[in-house]
Design goal:
Elements: E1 5-8, H1 20-23, E2 31-33, E3 41-44, E4 50-54, E5 60-66, E6 76-81, H2 86-99, H3 119-123, E7 127-132, E8 135-139, E9 145-150, E10 160-164, E11 173-177, H4 183-193, E12 199-201, H5 208-213, E13 215-218, H6 229-237
Antiparallel strand pairs: 1-12, 1-13, 2-3, 3-4, 4-5, 5-6, 6-11, 7-8, 8-9, 9-10, 10-11
Amino acid sequence: MDGDVYVTPRYLAGSSGDGNAGFAPVAHWPHHHLDDGPHQLVVTSPDHRIRIGWAGDDYDLWTISAAPDAMSPPQWMAIANQNTPAELVGALTAALAQDWAEDSDRFLAAAGRRSDAVEPLIAAGWTFGGLDRGWLRINAPDGQAGATVDVVNRHADESITLWAGPAGWGSRAGIVFSSRTPPHLIAATAKAFTDPAPVPRWRDTLDPRLATHATLTPVEPPKSPAPTPRDIRSRISVRPPIPVGSVPRWSTTTPSALLPARPAVRR
């Protein structure tokens, strides 16, 4: 287990320091390790229409995009910052891995209502916070996460933002989606925010501002399972025999316990 505490809710877990959980759904796709440029690793779909970039030492840690073909500019883009739990990014990459096929453009289709993108939040009990300067705001019950939707600019680079954690460079997580991102992909990411399952982290690497609002549960090592009746029988069956003494091969006498001493005869 990569951590000594479980963090609940998961959107307050911060970054684990690596991108393993985000890349796991596309581990079978081509990996490109780059020496130059902002991204140290770029994972692409086999036809290079989907690109997932990891910048290990940058604030914009993840850059995910999709294009009609390998040489076209991105049709949509999602950017997650360095405080975003990789498990949330993994929900997006898992949806992309499921959508991709050589003869499919599902990961490019922007059909559907913009409200569909945040429907999982509403279904989980998140509430509308009203309109503010053209932004529709949705808030988590604990006030430590939310979504903002640009309802004015239909072609914004920051059309929908999912965020979590107290404001601050080291504590606020954020995933920004451009306007043409398919709503079902945003919905898959939003649903991961509402997943009640905790995620493991190391307590000493968790930002104190996140720890203040999250619930931390110690990770206990797994206990050995109780033996079953079959286990007990198998142990008995292999128990070595108890020695009862030996009998000379030329003797027909069966060993027996010693007789008690005869009391002395009185004279």
